[in-house]
Predict the structure of proline dehydrogenase.
Amino acid sequence: SDAVNRVFRNGILHATTNPVVRRTVERYGMQLGAARFVAGESLDQAIQALRRLEDMGFKTNTTIFGEHVFDEATADAVADEYIRVIDRLKAEGLRTNIALKPTHLGLSVSREVGYRNIRRVVEHGAKVGTFVRMDMEDSPWVDGTLGIYRDLREAGLDNTGVVLQAYLYRSEVDLESLLPYAPNIRIVKGAYLEPPDIAYPSKADVDRAYIRLAERALTADGYTAIATHDRRIIEHIIDFAIANKIPRDRFEFQMLYGIATDLQLQLLRRGYTVLISTNHGTGWYPYLMRRLAERPANLLFFARNAVRL
Ligand code: FAD
């Protein structure tokens, strides 16, 4: 039920900061099944997965694992690494987009460092034709991330997009403020632990907010990425798009690598654009914990593998 899932989700997200949990999961996680959600611990491995997905007809993106960098030199190095990843993907003939976490590139050092590094990556993407989306992280970073998006667009950089989280009360206002840019917006439910004074605690409310945001974005100028594995929402959006004559090139579905793969294929076969979001690198721990928190069954999947070891 909703209440049980909420307790479970909050429990896992709380446990994420526990050092013993972290050490244990980092040691055994890959063997126990993290590989299902991780396209590769190296870029080389990820490239094989990305090529397979593109060959099947999917759009793709990739993210280097990492977040909450607090020193400038590290953040600068992450931007350099993203530029190398963009060039490598091009050299491999892949059309893969980039999705990056602003705090990985230094938003957590300062707004200026974050902007400078993200702008460097987006400018490089503009040069070679690669789209760069900023993911949306936990609530302290929302203002900074949206501010950087506005600054990039004001600077004439259009190969970039943002994310709005349906669980945040503020997102409907944020959406209205972004619409003048004809933005490329990904809509998600929201993956972090947020207090009830800023985010809907109930799943039913989050789902309703998701549909409101998606419908508003789809009927405005721009491009909408419907990022969810929720079949009910996806079918609702398909019906809405048909009823409102929203062309298929104005939106796409996005799902995470390794999740609801049958649904990914089914939508592709129905002629929709489907982007599979991948991550690579060794810092997969917080990402894995967010995926576990989303679904109690994922923990069972891990437990079963632990018994087999
Ligand atoms: P839910 O109601 O949670 O799930 C619907 C159904 O999907 C479930 O019943 C189950 O069948 C399946 N499912 C969902 N999650 C899992 C799972 N982990 N394992 C197996 N099955 C599952 N969040 C952010 O806060 N910021 C971001 O920038 C961001 N980017 C995202 C990008 C993409 C492409 C996607 C798909 C998600 C992103 N998210 C992001 C995560 C998002 O906020 C949700 O936490 C996540 O998508 C799970 O919610 P759901 O929409 O799938 O709906």
Remarks:
- The chain is about 50% helix and 15% strand.
- The domain at 38-283 is CATH 3.20.20.220 (TIM Barrel).
